[in-house]
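Help! Submission page says 'invalid entity' but I think these are all valid:
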Amino acid sequence: MSALLVFIGACLFIVSGLMALTRNVARHLPAGIHVLGSLIGLIGCALGLRGTPETLALPWGIPAGEIAIRVDALSAFFAAPVFLLAGAATLYAEGYWPSSRPRAAYVRCFFGVLSGALALVLVANHTIFFLAAWEIVALASFFLVGTDTTDSAARYASWLYLAASHVAMLALFGVVTLMHSMTGTWRFALLASDAASRPEGRAIFWLVIVACGIKAGAMPFHIWLPSAHAAAPSHVSALMSGVVIKMGIYGLVRVLSLFPATPAWMGGTILALGIVSSVLGVAFALAQHDLKRLLAYHSIENIGIILIGLGAGLVGRAHGAMTIAFLAFAGGLLHVWNHGLFKALLFLGAGAAIHGTHTREIDRMGGLARRMPSVAAGFLLGAIAISGLPPLNGFISEWLVYLASFSSVGQLHAGWTWLLLVIIGPALALTGALAAACFIKAFGAVFLGVPRSADAASATNALAPMRLALLPLAGACIAIGLVPALVAPILALVVGDASGVSGSVTSTFAALQPITITLALLISVAIIALVARTRRAPYVPTWDCGYAVPSPRMQYTASSFARGLVAFFAWAMPPVVDKPRPFPLFPAGAHFETHVPDTVLDRTLLPVLRRTKWLFAFARYVQSGRVQLYLLYVGAALLALLIWSSR
Amino acid sequence: MIVVHLVFVLASAPLLLGVINKTKALVAGRVGPPLLQAYFDLAKLFRKESVLSSTTTWVFLAGPAVSLVVAVVASLFLPFTGPKAPLAFRGDMILFVYLFALGRFFTTAAALDTGSSFEGMGAARELTFACLAEPALFFGLLALARVGDSLELSTVLAVSGTAWRTATAALVLIVASWFIVLLVENSRVPFDDPNTHLELTMIHEVMVLDHGGPAFGVVLYASAVKLFVFAALVVHVLLPQLANPAANAAALFGAILVIGIVIGVIESGMARLRLVRVPQLLITASIVAAFAVVLVLR
């Protein structure tokens, strides 16, 4: 039943998308069908999370292809947030991108196709079908990132995304082909027990790291992520950041779950990737002026935290320390859910702020908490959760990873990977503190204080569907944070599917749960008491040292707020400062500008490519851009293969 | 037990401020305010009316409220009155640190809620220093977790008190590092001067410039409890457990007051560090704590 329901849900997504292209369709019908698909899919995932895998196989006309669907706990676990987020984002889009707005049908169509194909990626049991769905996700995202065709930055972002996606695709082709040569089947099948020590097995590992690293946006493969997530419409960014990048994590977990055993260095590699992504991801986030780019860099940070969990789990398993491995896997995988929830909440909240103020610049917003209080509350909730603070869900998953790291100290001494396990604690602590600083900066500059521009001062509250869409996400963040015991049985099943490690966090959560609930209660009571006590207080201007003409521009800007920490990371991300000397003695004007370019993309990759592009000149002869010629290539390649195979 | 604990912490926390100020006064050759001055201040503030800034929202009041709640809840993970802490479970040491991070989140948000550039500046400094202090705390916790072979804060602190012979060097390093963290977390000299009167140079005081009346009382009370809890944390690393619970509690209380005297002497003896020097000292604290980890893993 679960496989069928998930398949129907995914198909309804695609149908709702295609329906938007036809004229004379009732205004809210595509969205209604989409939400219906979400509900059906969620029921399917809930059934799938009970632990008995179900399969569904339909014939497919493509040679060696088959629409094979398998919903086990791992697939259902990754698919559940897709259905929840896609439903919430659709609801949000009814207010954010109504059919009266230009390109509404275009956005609606690709959004439906994207969410449907994404659900299919996560439940595909046949590698060819998996690749096809993966490619559809990439193409639909490409079109959505480039929605605003008048914006050259959006066009550039979409092309960069397409290029990065296809590098990932190429690596994935390698993975699938190697797996086929090792197992003899196109379905996902367990590899031989010595697979990890064979050269093909090692090649699979490195290729899947590249493919899934690019897709998930792990540093240094993240080059496409910040610009793409910033350019896409906000509800699409919520979906891309919340669940599309998790496709990479899913691919990694799925492929690694096919290895009966993995050596410690594999886990160590993923762990190192995770530590780099989390610390540097949040450092780059701090340096951003664009609200959506800031959130995008936080996705890199959170992918890092997920990778830390998975890497530590693999290291623990390789050394036979199953309790540690279980805690780490559980933390990493729970963070997949948590990040999906709070990141979608943040992107939707940011979308409302951007919609209201017509700018993405943090330093041109301000004071929105008075104009859109419910959006501000949702964003604040997301900010607390993403900073990993109790009593919300972000803390729960990070806490499990901490537990794994702390338990491993002094126990796992073999090889070099123990050093990484020890560093997890301080690295996560630094990441958490930086994330909190970054979200205080973002929340403070966007929602608190006084408006910093005329647009911010005249912003109106978000429409009802947009506010309503925040509710399920915020509710889920609170529920997992306060009652983590809800997810304990799910985690046991999913970790079992992903790694074969069995264990339980029920007792761990049982000790924490009363305290998180008490903490939340006490905080609410204390705030309400203080608000009640000062209810009749008179309102006066903020203390400004007696200055006569206070202006909103006197507020501390977001850039100044982060300056100290950004300077601290200048070794990894040197800022570009444009500060011409005022001249002559009575200068007419002066300006000051600073931004932090991406070290991997802007400082490394692009300069190298610019110098070496003459090497690729020959490709122009092959890549003429004429469709007939490409058909000829395909035909020639098929013919050559035919001759080769009948040799 | 939990009630006795709470009464003890809530009642004695402001005394520590009195001890610090009395020490500073004595060193300077003044009579100084009475030991119980902080209690008088609190009583006065809670009776006063409040005035709010016209730019603020509920977040402004959430700052004081949350910082008091987290400090009190965090105190429950340390033994004060009995041999065991009221709350203890595997991994509570991480929650302990994160509780203060939650408090900091709301204090700084409340500061930004006023739209004042002074308060923004204070919040930025507070968060910058916190980012650098956090690794020091965690390296120390890692080392203690190894020494005490547990992830319960009260258990590892009980073990560390008796492990002085076996892990002397590591424990000294942890205490040194955590004492620096205590000073920065509680905005004491040399990181911040609680008695300064220039907005531009303050950190913690400037963040609460616009809080007045009961809200400011809560701020003051919360920072007193936080200082008391941090002092107890550092003291617990040193202090062996005594068999007699009353003697144990008395020894702990005495040692906390000694920390107050030490802070007072430091504040009398040195000026605030230049802002650019602060990160260097904090990184030193992290490295010192990292050495402790290396020593216990050896």
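Support: the input was valid. A stray whitespace character was the problem, and the output above is from the cleaned input. The radius of gyration of chain A is 25 Å.
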